[in-house]
């Protein structure tokens, strides 16, 4: 049996979204800090 997918909490998603909105760093820079792939974060 393979690895279980990581469950992201609502508060974690909000924290990542707020970091995206600050635009202090690029997606490629802050994605590794939160251990997410840059394609998982969209700017809209």
Could you characterize what this model shows?
- The chain is mainly alpha-helical and 44 residues long.
- It has a domain at 10-37.
- The chain is built from two helices and no strands.
- It has helices at residues 10-22, 27-30.
- Average pLDDT, rounded to a whole number, is 85
Secondary structure: helix percent: 25-40%
Give the biggest beta sheet.
none
Q: In total, how many beta strands?
A: 0
Strand content: under 5%
Q: Determine the oligomeric state from the structure.
A: single chain
- Total helix count? 2
Alpha carbon gyration radius = 11 Å
Q: Give the H and E element order.
A: HH
Q: Which structural class is indicated by helix and strand composition? A: mainly alpha
Report how far the terminal alpha carbons are from each other: 36 Å
Sequence stretches where pLDDT stays below 50 over 5 or more residues: none
Q: Outline, from the CA principal axes?
A: globular
Summarize the structure.
By secondary structure, the chain is mostly helical. The protein has helices at residues 10-22, 27-30.
């Amino acid at each position: 049996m393979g690895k279980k997918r990581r469950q992201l909490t609502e508060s974690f998603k909000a924290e990542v979204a707020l970091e995206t909105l600050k635009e202090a760093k690029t997606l490629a820079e802050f994605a590794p800090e939160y251990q997410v792939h840059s394609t998982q974060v969209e700017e809209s």
